[in-house]
Structure formats: structure tokens, C-alpha cells
Amino acid sequence: MIKTIRKVHLWLGLTCGLIASFSGLTGALYVWQPEITALLNPNLLQVDDIKKLDEKTILKSTTSLMAKYKDSLSSVFLPYREQQTISLKFENGNTAYFDPKNLTFLGEKSSSIHFFENLLSLHRSLGIPRYGKYIVGTSAVLFFLFLLTSGIYMWATAYGSNMKKGFAIQWKGKRKKLNFDIHKAFGAYFIIPLFILALTGSYFTYNSYYKLALSLFDGDSEQQQLKVDLNNPYSFRDYLLRSNESYALRAIHFPKEEAGNYRLRYIKERFLKSGLRRTKEVEIDSDGQLTVLSDFRTDHNSIRIAAQAYPIHIGEMAGLIGRILVFVSGLVPFLLLLTGFNIYRNKKRRKNKKSRNSRAR
Questions:
Q1: What is the DSSP string of 118-177?
Q2: Using CA atoms, how far apart are residues 311 and 301, in angstroms rounded to an integer?
């Protein structure tokens, strides 16, 4: 039994562990994306005294920009996270940034912003169109279902009666012993954070299955419907200006086709803050029928819980301490991969040496 578990742990470590290491390293860097991006792009993303800027001014500036560029817009993004400015994404793919106070044009998307967008794509899908997210998501599932569980089983079998030894690292020991200690100790230290990261990470690939499982906790809720006159731009403008009673408008996505739908996304807090992620999303069809697709206040429990996958995965739910923990945890799979490979290589060398000695006799 234990031999089979060791083989499963070994081969999953050399396969899924490789992908987990890549995802961990890219994810660890992305944890600090808001701070790094803001530091490198102060002219595009930062505004003086942003906390003194009220919601009404932000929304008025947004509607003014929409009126000016409406025919060529794909999306509008209002201040959120590290971005304190308003950005317009055009149908040709370009993005322009504007000051929310005086509508001054600030510039276009920089190379560092593109870098982190590409980094996120690599983290989620290895940069492989269509199928990459399934490779990453399936590896994450195998990682927490089998690789982590087999590792903790072997650890518990070996050190269940002396757990202190299982957590100990002999830093002055021989190289092979040190390598083994680092592997077994760090695997034990970070078993819970790694399990949570893998569990929440796979959600982004298999979210429909997660929501189906979480629906066991659901009660009753109903979608709300209102009416907006799309032929009257003032009606749409008035809706936007009065729609910030409980949420901050985060983004407006314009219809790709003439008969398509507008999609509006809202967030409870514009800038980084610990705690639950509360969101709202509405859709307006070509007839002006407005449907509240989701609202944290009235959503099913499954949607509420699922909405927390991102802030948990990136550590923001627990504030700075949570982000630091996720950053360090993201480096651990690579450490486990290296030390695990060294353990495998050392065992292989011992076997080959014994085989040569037996043949020499």
C-alpha cells in the first residue's frame, strides 16, 4: 500500500508538481501586481487625493467620456484596485486612461501593464488558447486530491508518533539529509495553504461544478427587473448616476452587436480591502430591459461563496498578512519539486550503485 502511494506521489510530483510550480511562481509575482503596476505607472494610474474624490464626480466623468467616445467603445473601467483613473477600451483593442477629475488624457496602456496581463494569462492557462486552463485546472485538482494527500499520508505514517521530528530541519546536516528535511518539513508546514490555493485555483476552470456542489446551501432568490430607455441617452445616464447607492460602478461592457446587451459590473469597495468580496452585475438588453444578474445581498449562497474564490486565492481576504502568506506559499511547490526530484535522483543513484556492485560480484 505505502509503495503504491509513494509511486503515485512521485509521478504526480514530477508532472502536476511541475505545472503547480509554474503556477505558484507566476501567482506569487502576481500577488504584488497592484503595487508594482502603480509604482511603474504613476502617470496612468494614480490621482492626487483620490480618497477625496466622491462617487458622483467619478460617474459624471464616466458618462461624459462615454458620450464623447460611445461609437468606438468596447468597455469602460472606473477606478478599482491600483487604478485610480478611468480607462476606455476601444473596439480596435487600444486602451486610453483619463483623469476622473478633469478628463485629461493621460496616455495608453504601458508595457508593464501588458506584462502583468500576460503573466495572469500564463498563470491561468499557460498561454495555451482554449485548452490551457483545463491543463492548469486539472493539475490543481490532482494536486490537492492526490499529491498533497499522499504526501501528508506518508508524513503521518513516518512521524505520527513523533510529530516534532516531522517538522524539524537539521540545517547543519549532510546535503542529502538537509534536502529530505526541507521537503518533508515544508510540505507539512504549508499543507493547508497549498490545499486552499489548489482548491480555489481549480475553481476558475471548473466553476460550474463548484457552484453545482455549493447549491446544496442555496435558498430562494429572484432576479430583479427594471426598465431603461436606451433610445434616450439621458435615461441611461440617469441610471448610472443614481446606481451607486450600495455599490461602486466598476465596469461597463458595451454590446458587440447592435442587438447585444450592455453589462454593468459593480463592487462594494473600489480599492484593496480585506474581507468578503461583494459584487453586483446587471445586464441591459436591446429593448432596455434591465436584469439584475447577481447581487451579493440577494444572491444564492452558492454564488456568494463562489465569489470569494478570488480574494481567498490571492490572499486579499486576509489583508496584507494573507497576501504575504500566498506569496510565500506560491514559492513552496517549486521548492518541493526541486527537493523531491533530488530525493528521487539520490534513490536512483543508490539503486544503480547496488546493481553495479551485485554484477561485479
A1: HHHHHHHHTT-TTTHHHHHHHHHHHIIIIIHHHHHHHHHHHHTT-HHHHH---TTS-HHH
A2: 17
| CA distance linking residue 90 with residue 74, whole number of Å | 5
**Strand ranges in the chain using DSSP code E only, listed in sequence order:** 73-77, 86-90, 95-98, 105-108, 225-227, 248-253, 262-267, 279-284, 289-295
Residues forming a β-bridge with 234: none
Q: What is the CA 159 to chain-centroid distance, rounded?
A: 35
φ/ψ region of 134 (left if φ > 0, alpha if ψ in -120 to 50, else beta) reads alpha
Report yes or no: 183 and 343 within 8 Å, Cβ to Cβ: yes
CA distances from 340 to 109, 161, 179 (A): 41, 23, 8
**Contact (CB, 8 A) for 344 and 180:** no
Integer Cα distance of 112 and 334 in angstroms: 25
182 three-class SS: helix
Q: What is the grid cell recorded at 184?
A: 518533508
Angle in degrees, 0-180, between the axes of helices 111-125 and 132-142, rounded to the nearest 10: 60
pLDDT tens-digit series, residues 127-177: 998 899 999 999 999 999 899 999 999 999 999 899 999 999 999 888 999
pLDDT at 331 over 70: yes
Sequential DSSP letters for 199-225: HHHHHTTSHHHHHHHHGGG-------E
* Residue 69 φ/ψ, nearest 5 degrees: -115, 15
The per-residue pLDDT of the chain, averaged, comes to 89
Q: Give the CA diameter of the chain.
A: 94
Residue extents of the structural domains in the chain: 2-32+118-216+318-360, 50-102+220-299
Residue 127 Rama label (left phi>0; alpha psi -120 to 50; beta): left
Tell me the CA distances in angstroms from 243 to 55, 106, 130, 248, 290, one per residue in order.
10, 27, 36, 8, 12
* Grid cell digits, residue 23: 503556477
> Rounded distance, CA 85 to CA 74, Å?
17
Partner residues linked to 282 by β-bridges: 264, 292
Q: What is the DSSP string of 77-90?
A: E-SBTTB-SEEEEE
**pLDDT category of residue 227 using cuts at 50, 70 and 90:** low
